[in-house]
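Severity: low
Component: inverse-folding endpoint
Summary: output formatting inconsistent between runs
Steps to reproduce: submit the following structure tokens with default settings.
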């Protein structure tokens, strides 16, 4: 870091990692500029979100992601439901839900919810077949 840099570069280097937040397993993996947080269901994503620190801490994390030119994606069943950091583009829905500067991806959330419902129905059919 040079004398003119106000922040150290932020980098994420990890092999696959699993965290547990409020009993929910969160699978974490990263590429060069993206951090992926994967959970099993939309309900799990909401449980984890409720356990996150308040606005000041969340704002700090988002600021550091942006300064490091990094993006974090929250994924459910392989579908991105929320994005924070450099590539987040919060729209009216994000502001209405109070999650801006993070971006909610409605199509991802609906698709993940539908995928979860479909999987539950398939399991129920197997039980009663």
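Observed output (run 2 of 3):
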């Amino acid at each position: 870091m040079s004398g003119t840099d106000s922040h150290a570069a932020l980098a994420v280097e990890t092999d696959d990692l699993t965290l547990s937040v409020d009993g929910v397993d969160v699978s974490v993996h990263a590429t060069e500029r993206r951090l992926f947080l994967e959970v099993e269901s939309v309900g799990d994503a909401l449980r984890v979100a409720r356990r996150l620190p308040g606005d000041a801490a969340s704002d700090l994390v988002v600021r550091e992601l942006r300064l490091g030119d990094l993006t974090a994606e929250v994924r459910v069943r392989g579908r991105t439901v929320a994005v924070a950091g450099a590539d987040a583009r919060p729209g009216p829905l994000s502001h209405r839900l109070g999650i801006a500067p993070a971006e909610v991806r409605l199509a991802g959330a609906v698709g993940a919810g539908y995928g979860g419902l479909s999987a539950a129905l398939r399991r129920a059919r197997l039980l009663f077949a």
